[in-house]
Amino acid sequence: VIVATAGPIDLGPLLFIVFGAALFCGVVFAGVLVLAARRRAQLVIEGAVANVDEIEEAENRLRLLGGGPQPVFPGSDDFLDGAQSSMLAIAQARAAHQLETVAALLTPDYYETLLAEQRAAAEPPAQLDVEVVAARIDEREPGMPMQADPSVRQDIVVAWFGATLRLHTADRRGAPLIKTTVTAQVWRFVRAQGRSDQADPLLAARLCPNCGASLGDDASGVCGYCHQVTVGNTQGWLVGAIEIQPLT
Ligand SMILES: [Zn+2]
Predict the structure, then answer these.
(1) CA dist 25 → 29, 33, 39, 95, 111 (Å)
(2) Disulfide-capable partner of 192 in 64, 138, 166, 212 (CB 3.0 to 4.6 Å)?
(3) Rounded to the nearest whole angstrom, what is the distance from the C-alpha of residue 144 to the centroid of ligand 1?
(4) Distance between CA atoms of residues 228 and 149, nearest Å
């Protein structure tokens, strides 16, 4: 007769299994949480879906791209400051569908182009945060014939901006969603040739920043010759084109 002297049950292996299973579930659960967090932070980058690390990587690339040599000319530092202010104001006005508020910063043609885009826009107005990561002057072409009227000459300066854009929008269920885009953009600025870099009040100068025509006594704030909106841009640089560059 074999008496099974079943001693106290050895719980060791069982506990090991239970703890092991719990640990495994915990790791899986934590993984799901991390993924969910990533998905919430998952962001739209030009041409690619990315997470926070990728955004940092893209921003570092922008810093490298922005560090190259750039043309220097009298007033180029002031130019870049003013250009950046214009860029911020225009980008935010576009996102908010309030382009009318920045008409004085755009050439008449480009204003019309962007206004048409705004009217046709499918996305609702949204708040946009812009973080300029790097900025530089790309090129400068003084005294170029104006496209619409070659008898008028303009100074052209092309500015390059690397920026992270955060658009405060909503998902399909209406929950807040921030769409982040890291982008490199080329902005073309024009100004009537020979305008002073001194921040002379435009109304004192009474000259159109776009074509240089005299504004005379007209108080409408619109140039009678080229229809530039002239109020509120003392430096006189106007944005004539914006081009998004692929971030490679
Ligand atoms: Zn004009």
Answers:
(1) 6, 12, 21, 44, 57
(2) 212
(3) 16
(4) 14
d(CA 189, CA 117): 20
Q: In the β-sheet with 153-170, what is the strand arrangement from edge to edge?
A: 127-145, 153-170, 176-192, 238-245
Cβ-based neighbours of 169, under 8 Å, separated by 6 or more: 123, 124, 126, 176, 177, 178, 179
As given in the structure block, the two tokens for residue 244 are 């998004």
pLDDT at 198: 59
As a whole number of angstroms, the distance between CA 146 and CA 153 comes to 5
Cβ within 8 Å of residue 236, ≥6 positions away: 191, 192, 195, 202, 209
CA of 93 relative to ligand 1 center, distance in Å? 23
Tokens 């003392």 locate to: 234
Measured distance CA(242)–CA(229) in Å, rounded = 19
List, as ranges, residues with CB under 5 A of the ion ligand 1: 208, 210-211, 213, 223, 225-226, 228
pTM value?
0.73
Alpha carbon distance 201, 204 (integer Å)? 5
The CA-CA-CA angle for residues 112, 124, 165, to 5°, reads 80
Q: Ligand 1 centroid vs 230 CA: distance in angstroms?
A: 8
Q: How far is the CA of 189 from the centre of ligand 1 (A)?
A: 15
